[in-house]
Specification:
This protein is an alpha/beta fold. The chain contains 14 helices and eleven strands. It folds into two domains: 198 residues, Rossmann fold; 137 residues, Rossmann fold (3-Layer(aba) Sandwich), CATH 3.40.50.720. The strands form three sheets. The protein has a seven-stranded parallel beta sheet with strand order 3-2-1-4-5-6-10, sandwiched between helices. It starts with a strand and ends in a 7-residue tail after the last helix. The model has no long low-confidence stretch (mean pLDDT 94).
């Protein structure tokens, strides 16, 4: 019998996919992966199709949840028009219901449940509406300032937990970079497609399409998965909130030469380009690139999802002056015992190399 049984909700997203891969490689761990779409690989996890907005479908899967010890809740509902949707009532209400729909049958089915890991992000500090107070700290959330589904989900866990045997941990990653297909917020496929189209157009230098830089942070999805695993075992993580980053900082124009090199280019000039407007509609051109290289990545809609819009947002397209720094403190996480770090340039290189190796992007 496995000593740990992990349920991963949102297994095709950036965080869920990394968590599924991590726990599936852990000795003595059984993994159940939930998502609407089947993951490209399951790494030995047992995948069950599930739409978390359907309470009846969640109830029907309850027998499969028996013996679950850990829940990694990485599921996310995002609306087209990604950035605008972050403050809309429908998005807030839907994400709130999704967590509740899953927790009800899970708690009924498994008395063994001992930990719930929940993901938030820097929108907890209002980064999407105003400059951060640098550094943003976990005890300075803007819970009552901006509407956000984070608060609905967090209140639900806080109110439910005292009557249960499980504890929770909330992790707040910054920009997440890694291996996932069709995600709402993954810059790797978005920038990889942009580069492939520039190469098809005969370019040998890759121009930077974003806006003026700002000092920011990122986190590798696999590092984040290891932080999630740590949180499920550490007494110091019980009912606590932690920011998670790679440990360094970056500015998009400054990291661009490493990104260009990972994609087989020299760095070009700063030539602003709205990827969502200019690259996303070019399905026919992408089909030609896929055919020429024998790629397995599917259409732009299937492969990139909403991430062209997210890339424009995070790279500051249209920003003419450097934006305010967006930095969070990870002192609390390190003092609690998780001290892993990663070089952000190496993270970008890793992300592109993984998709090139899987023939999701053209070779370097």
């Amino acid at each position: 019998m496995p000593s740990k049984k992990v349920l991963v909700a949102g297994a095709t997203g950036l965080v869920g996919y990394a968590a599924m891969k991590h726990f599936a490689a852990e000795a003595g761990c059984e993994v159940i992966a939930l998502s609407r779409r089947r993951p490209a690989e399951t790494y030995g996890a047992r995948w069950l199709p599930l739409d978390l907005t359907d309470a009846g479908a969640c109830d029907a899967l309850a027998p499969h949840f028996a013996g679950v010890t850990h829940l990694v809740y990485a599921a996310l509902y995002e609306r087209p028009g990604l950035v605008a949707g972050w403050r809309e009532e429908e998005q807030i209400r839907t994400n709130d219901l999704m967590l509740r729909n899953l927790m009800a049958p899970l708690e009924r089915a498994s008395s063994a449940l001992r930990h719930v890991a929940l993901l938030q992000g820097t929108k907890a500090y209002g980064v999407h509406v105003r400059p951060l107070n640098v550094p943003a700290r976990e005890n300075r959330s803007e819970m009552h300032e901006q509407p956000n589904f984070y608060w609905n989900q967090e209140r639900f866990l806080r109110e439910r937990q005292p009557a249960t045997a499980w504890s929770w941990t909330i992790l707040r990653p910054v920009l997440i970079v890694g291996d996932s297909v069709g995600s709402a917020m993954n810059v790797i496929p978005a920038l990889g497609v942009y580069a492939a189209m520039m190469r098809k157009a005969g370019k040998t230098k890759l121009d930077y399409p974003g806006g003026a830089g700002r000092v920011a942070q990122a986190v590798d999805a696999d590092l984040l998965a290891r932080a999630i695993a740590w949180s499920g075992e550490s007494e110091k993580a019980r009912n606590e909130i932690f920011n998670v980053t790679n440990g360094d900082v970056f500015v998009w124009p400054n990291v661009w030469p490493a990104i260009a090199d990972a994609l087989g280019f020299a760095a070009g000039d700063h030539v602003p380009l709205a990827l969502d407007r200019e690259i996303r509609p070019r399905e026919a051109e992408w089909a030609e690139i896929r055919a020429a290289h024998g790629l397995a990545s599917g259409t732009l809609k299937e492969f990139v999802g909403l991430s062209f819009e997210y890339a424009d947002y995070t790279m500051g397209f249209g920003r003419d002056a450097p934006g305010p720094a967006a930095l969070v403190s990870t002192i609390k996480l390190m003092q609690a015992g998780f001290t892993e770090v990663m070089d952000t340039e190496a993270m970008f290189r890793k992300g592109f190399a993984e998709m090139q190796a899987k023939k999701l992007l053209p070779p370097r």
